[in-house]
Write a structure and sequence with these properties.
Length: about 80
Amino acid sequence: MSLNPFELRFKLLEMSQKYFQEQATKNQELAAQAWETAVKQGEDTVDFYQSLLPASYSIEDIKNKAEELYEFVDKK
C-alpha cells in the first residue's frame, strides 16, 4: 500500500493523536485508582486531587510526535 505525501501526513497525525489519547486514558485510570486509595486511607485532600489531574496534550504535542514518527519513516 503506497500513500501519497498528504495521506502519509494525515496518517502520522492520526497515529500521534491516538498515542496521546491512549496515554491520557491510562493516566486518568491511574489517577482514579490513586484517588480511590487516598479516600480509603483518609488522605483525600484537594491538593492531592489536583496533583493527580493529568496534564492535557496540545495540538503542538501531536504535531511534534508526528514529526518524530516521520523521522523513522524518512530514514533509509
